[in-house]
Amino acid sequence: MSARTKARKRAVDMLYAADVRGVPVSDIVMAEALRAASEPERESSWLYARDIVDGVVENLAEIDQAISSNARGWTLERMPAVDRAILRCAAWEIMFNPDIPAGVATSEAVALASELSTEESSGFVNGLLSTIANT
After folding, report:
1. How far lies 108's CA from each of 23, 40, 118, 129, 134, in Å?
2. Which of 1, 31, 71, 108 is the most exposed place for a label (fewest CB within 10 A)?
3. pLDDT at position 35, please?
4. What is the pLDDT of residue 18?
5. 122 CA to centre of own chain
6. pLDDT at position 120, please?
7. Category of 128 on φ-ψ map: left (φ > 0), alpha (ψ -120 to 50) or beta
8. pTM, 2 dp
9. Pick from 23, 24, 5: nearest CA to 86
10. What is the CATH number of the domain that holds 104?
11. What is the mean pLDDT of each run of 10 residues along the chain (135 residues)?
12. Angle at the Cα of 16 (from 15 to 22), degrees rounded to 5?
């Protein structure tokens, strides 16, 4: 598994944990930073995970608007928390990180949805991110 793939999973984990626990993302990031500092093998994935989470937090309104306006029949609140986290991370990569091709961000998000969420989530994530990428 590449460092960026691990970083995406870590970013999803952090956003999901904050969402489910109802705590500020900064609390989760701080705990993860301490963990990463004590486990040097995690450093390569930590830096990009932090970039993703910081980017999502800084651009949350615009990311959520893009997700909401393209999620036909779904509100953010109705989506499973893990799907929200996956979509937010991938949408940030598509919308704000020109170093990552939209296809790569989408493919990685679909893989995470297949691994972490419902059977239908991977198709939903794929369609929604493809629409965002083409807008």
Report:
1. 26, 24, 16, 11, 17
2. 1
3. 85
4. 97
5. 14
6. 93
7. alpha
8. 0.95
9. 5
10. 1.10.940.10
11. 92 97 95 85 85 98 97 92 98 97 98 96 96 94
12. 90
Domain count of the fold of the chain: 1
Q: For tokens 């970083």, what's the residue?
A: 7
In Å, what is the CA distance from 66 to each residue of 44, 55, 92? 30, 15, 10
Give me the domain span that covers residue 128. 3-133
The Cα 100–Cα 121 span in angstroms is 22
Cβ atoms within 10 Å of 124's Cβ, excluding its own: 19
The answer to whether 6 and 45 have CB atoms below 8 angstroms apart is yes
For residue 63, give both structure tokens.
Answer: 């990311």
Both structure tokens of 34: 């301490």
> Contact, 119 vs 80, CB < 8 A?
no
The tokens of 48 are what? 């990009």
Q: How far apart are CA 116 and CA 60, in angstroms?
A: 22
Q: What is the DSSP letter of 59?
A: T
